[in-house]
Amino acid sequence: MADDRQWEYRVMTFGSTFARPKDRDLETILNEWGEEGWEISGVLPHENSGKVSLVAKRPLDRTTRRRRGWPG
Q1: Where are the domains of the chain?
Q2: Which helix (H) or strand (E) holds 57?
Q3: pTM above 0.85, yes or no
Q4: Cβ-based neighbours of 19, under 8 Å, separated by 6 or more
């Protein structure tokens, strides 16, 4: 049976060229995203940098559909 579920995705990059992100900052955003129904589906370290990108997904439906663009 095929899975007809649709997903929406969110990507955010943390850290800088010279400093990796602080654990407490990542923990804060992960807890916020978890409360909104997001699940981390990938972590992408940036080569030769302290940056890391988090990729999250959640099922797409009428109650969770995000507006295009980021708030604030």
Answers
A1: 7-59
A2: strand 52-59
A3: no
A4: 50
